[in-house]
Amino acid sequence: LIGLSSIAQADVFPSRPITLVVPFAAGGPTDVAARMIAIPMGKSLGQTVIVENTVGAGGTVATQRVARANPDGYTIFIHHMGMATAPALYRKLSFDPLKDFEYIGQVIDVPMTMLARKDFPANNLQEMIAYVKANKDKVSLANAGLGAVSHLCGMLFQSAIGVELNTIPYKGTGPAMNDLMGGQVDLLCDQTTQTVPLVKEGRVKIYGVTTLKRLSALPNVPTMDEQGLKGFEVKVWHGIYAPKGTPKPTVDKINAALRAALQDPAVKQRMTDLSVEIPSMDKVTPQGLQTHLESEINKWGPVIRKAGIYAD
Ligand code: MLT
């Protein structure tokens, strides 16, 4: 009897801590977002949700790790739209975002901010563009590697102003931000999840936000669009995944915990403070994420292939 009851207990998911894999370095926006939801998710599930950073190759090292993990619900994954751009950017990818995962749900939509080191010699976007054009061999732009949204935003910026800069890849915008604050690198486009507090504390200089409307968290900061870069818009969507074959009842339990976390008043307040949007609950579903991922792969694939950007 004792033996049977312990088997029954072990079968009830979750009976031990769950690992939430983050594909970029600790301290960066994906890591911050993951930690915001890990604690309330853990409370709902009755087990700790441990955040683990697996870095490298614009998030694809972690994606591969999760694709090959045991499909038992104990390894789950948060990733942004890099999940949709990877198949075009990395031609030798060892996973398929449409075949190797179960979808838990969309999580958050995050605006970006165009930043410079504090003492960068320009006081608004137009001055910054003029300086960058006149000093293009000297100005450095940080990003988190091919497939990172900081890379995507940086590419859009360079193409919008018609200049190619010296880009410096990091394992996440957490370490890139440390170097921006330390003055080792000049420019970085990064998500508000990480940047709002640093902008408010004056630790970096901000030139614009990447949404078409100003952000409630930074109401005095103009959009890139209103300063002359018409239509400059980047908003970063995120999803939570599990390896393919994770049982449906387990996926449903993780989804319920995710939905509860996103409706937790403290989480909602923190997200609002960072101008991070929580999607409508019909998107926080396996179907909502799958449909969005498919349409994003179809959207970005041709753009990336046409631009001829790839890793190998
Ligand atoms: C991070 O968490 O470091 C960022 O999301 C990386 C990126 O710019 O994509």
Automatic annotation (TrEMBL):
| Transmembrane portions of the chain | none
Q: Which CDD domains match?
A: PBP2_BugD_Asp
Q: Does Signal count among this protein's keywords?
A: yes
Q: Which domain of life is it from?
A: Bacteria
Task: Please name the Pfam families in this protein's record.
Answer: TctC (PF03401)
Keyword annotations: Receptor, Signal
Q: Which family does it belong to?
A: Belongs to the UPF0065 (bug) family.
Q: What is this protein called?
A: Tripartite-type tricarboxylate transporter, receptor component TctC
Q: Which organism is it from?
A: Polynucleobacter kasalickyi
